Amino acid sequence: MFVRTTAINKILELKKRKKVIQGGTSAGKTYGIIPILIDKCTKIELLEVSVVSESVPHLKRGALKDFLKIMKATGRFIEKNYNKTDRIYRFENGAFIEFFSPESILGARRNILYVNECNNISFQDYHQLCIRTSDDIYLDYNPSSEFWVQTELIKDDDVDFIVLTYKDNEALSDTIIADIEKARDKAKDSTYWANWWQVYGLGQMGTIEGVVFEAFKPVNEFPDECKWVAYGMDFGYTHDPTTLIKCGFKGGELFFEQLIFETGLTNNDISNKLKDLNIGRSEIVADSAEPKSVEE
Predict the structure, then answer these.
(1) How much is the average pLDDT of 191-216?
(2) Cβ–Cβ < 8 Å for 32, 8
(3) pLDDT in tens, 146-174
(4) Same domain? 158 vs 235
(5) Could you say which of 41, 58, 85, 122 has the lowest number of CB atoms within 10 Å?
(6) Residue 265, exposed/middle/buried by CB under 10 A (0-12, 13-18, 19+)?
């Protein structure tokens, strides 16, 4: 039997086109959005809904798994209507819900878009999906660190925003609640648990675990007259990008500027980019795992 939680009710109160759902662990974000999408598909003929996540395996473990579970629990699932290969479920009225990752069918159009754990995809991918969506857009995430929702979307007039926590999910078992709340007590004596409770317990913005610099702020431009300036480079190609970071020290503070962050670059491409950046004869500390590229 499917339980209508407080999370579902709160999401239904969001009326603007872009609905941003920030929340902690087990807050019912996915379990709140998916039933709403199912309900829309049963009521609106030929409705086209896309559910997007960072990868197909991520979908299978998350949003797609929850969709199938909800459909079966509510007695709506019809085996012949589900194309397992393409991950598309077609309703009797011609509406459908499809599940894909950004690299699959980014150019397709739809009526409704749901990006699950949207902090795991780039703003560029989100924007391409957004401009091909005619109606509602749902975005959910755990607030482990600031990203493009905060920098690009949150202040727009067409955005509604809510924060959900595990307390909004009445379907949670007592054992899961107890495990979550253990972090609250541990947070008193541990930086790790304090950040975990902030993000996953309270659903509030935290910091990425394991980062070198936990506290930083953006500046408009790299300062002039630094005490020293250095460059660091990491070579990549297919999956990992080639990167170049400019570092400086001034007034007791460190400054960093990302100059290159791109996949598919050959050594010749990198050389041309360095010339375009007008770095000159500055020394670059590069990835020691690639001595051949360093020497070239």
Answers:
(1) 81
(2) yes
(3) 899 999 999 999 999 999 999 999 989 99
(4) no
(5) 85
(6) middle
Q: What pLDDT is stored for residue 1 in this prediction? A: 44
Neighbour-count burial for 49-58, b at 16+ CB within 10 Å, e otherwise: bbbbbbeeee
Q: Among 265, 263, 140, 262, which Cα is nearest to 203's?
A: 140
Between CA 130 and CA 124 the distance in angstroms is 10
Is 12 contained in some domain? yes
pLDDT category at 85 given cuts 50, 70, 90 is very high
Other CB atoms within a 10 A radius of the CB of residue 294 amount to 15
Kindly report, residue by residue over 244-282, the tens digit of the pLDDT.
Answer: 999 999 988 899 999 999 888 999 999 999 999 988 888
Asked if residue 193 belongs to a domain, the reply is no
| 145-152: Cβ within 8 A, 24+ apart | 145/119, 145/205, 145/206, 145/207, 145/208, 145/211, 146/205, 147/119, 147/123, 148/122, 148/123, 149/20, 149/22, 149/118, 149/119, 150/205, 152/123
180 within a domain of the structure (yes/no): no
Closest CA to 124 of 147, 142, 144: 147
230: region left, alpha or beta (phi > 0 left; psi from -120 to 50 alpha): beta
Decide if pLDDT at 210 tops 70.
no
Say what the pLDDT of residue 280 is. 83
> Pick from 181, 187, 124, 146: which is nearest to 22 by CA?
146
The verdict on residue 195 lying in a domain is no
Q: Which domain holds residue 257?
A: 228-295
Question: Given strand 137-141, what is the order of strands in its sheet?
Answer: 82-83, 88-90, 96-100, 48-52, 112-115, 137-141, 18-23, 159-164
Q: Is 182's pLDDT higher than 50?
A: yes
Residue 89 β-bridge partners: 82, 97
Same structural domain, 121 and 253: no
